[in-house]
What does this fold into?
Amino acid sequence: HVELVESGGGLVQAGGSLRLSCAASGTIFSRNDMGWYRQAPGKQRELVASITSEGTTNYAAFVKGRFTISRDNVEDTVYLQMNNLKPEDTAVYYCECQEPGGRFGILQFWGQGTQVTVSS
It folds into this structure.
């Protein structure tokens, strides 16, 4: 089965940086599109950034120029480098995997989440 394990969250002051990691197992990682989502208290989960199996990236407008998503197909890991963090970036950040499922379509998997707290 697919397992996604996030790490790298924590408490940081506004203007600081964090690097999130998501290690995948139980899947052919290089075939998968990967993404980072976040969910703040009382809000819906929202897409932060995504990266396709070919390396094409996409960012939400609110993180463009501050966050960078990347992947390492040898380490089966996707990263989210977060710079110039703001208090409104405070949320639980989730790693998402979209695995080609053949006749089953795209199979979606989630990590357990990692808390990011930005103090003002």
